[in-house]
Amino acid sequence: MTAIAIIGAMDEEIAHIAAALDGVTVTEEAGVKVTRGTIETNRGASIGVVATVGGMGTVNIAATTQHLIDTDRPGAVIFSGIAGNLNTNLHVNDVVLGGTLRYLDTDMRLVGQFKPGTADHPVEEYHSDDRLIGLADQTLDDMGIHHIVGIIATGNYFVDDPKKVEQVIRETGADAVEMEGAAVAHVAARNDIPALVIRALSDNADTDYEDFKEFDISEYADTAAKLTVDIVKRM
């Protein structure tokens, strides 16, 4: 199998992933620090891993995703990070796997005309790969982490008040809201590469950004890194 690209939301997460790799090298490329190495799967095979922190927002993450695809031609792209919870049946520390990913602030009648859509049949949303969803679902079960396969909404603004929450739910039906997932799945789809978006819920989309910056989110980084490494080992 070719390399697996892992894009994280936090430096701590990528540091945890790097610690699980052999033969690690780190380079500066396209404005990001890229870590490469190998990991042994549960079947005894060796898989190459290329990992980086992608940057916040759809443009930053799209640029990073395309760069890794161009340089390493990975067999899959895995993105993991944190998100605001919109589902009253979920709680902080639960996980949403992005079965469906929808943009918040994008007119898909226009953007969706391009691959994997067409001018006659524009796409309205993007999806994580079914096989990768299955691996993640089993891994989370084994880790004892409550999770769902749900809808993730992506937009270029921080959702932090009830009016915005109501708007996001009304427009997308999302279980979680963040700023990158749909763009990762979008770029992967354009390149015919399977993708998986994983989001750990860090708050209930009710925290002002200036306050949120003070949160200690290291435990989410640790959980996300362990989950991602375990998924790769099952490939």
Detailed description of the structure:
Helix 5 (162-172) links the parallel strand 7 (147-154) and strand 8. The chain has 235 residues and is α/β, with parallel strands linked by helices. Helix content is 35%, strand content 29%. It is globular. Helix 1 packs across helix 8 (218-233) and helix 2 (58-72) runs parallel beside helix 6. The mean pLDDT is 91. It contains eight helices and nine strands. It has a five-stranded mixed beta barrel with strand order 5-8-7-6-9, surrounded by four helices.
Strand count, sense and barrel status of the largest sheet are: 5 strands, mixed, barrel
Strand content: 25-35%
Helical content, roughly?
Answer: 25-40%
The radius of gyration computed from the alpha-carbon positions, rounded to a whole number of angstroms, is 17 Å
| Structure summary, number of beta strands | 9
Q: What is the first-to-last residue Cα distance?
A: 9 Å
Which class do the helix and strand fractions yield? alpha/beta
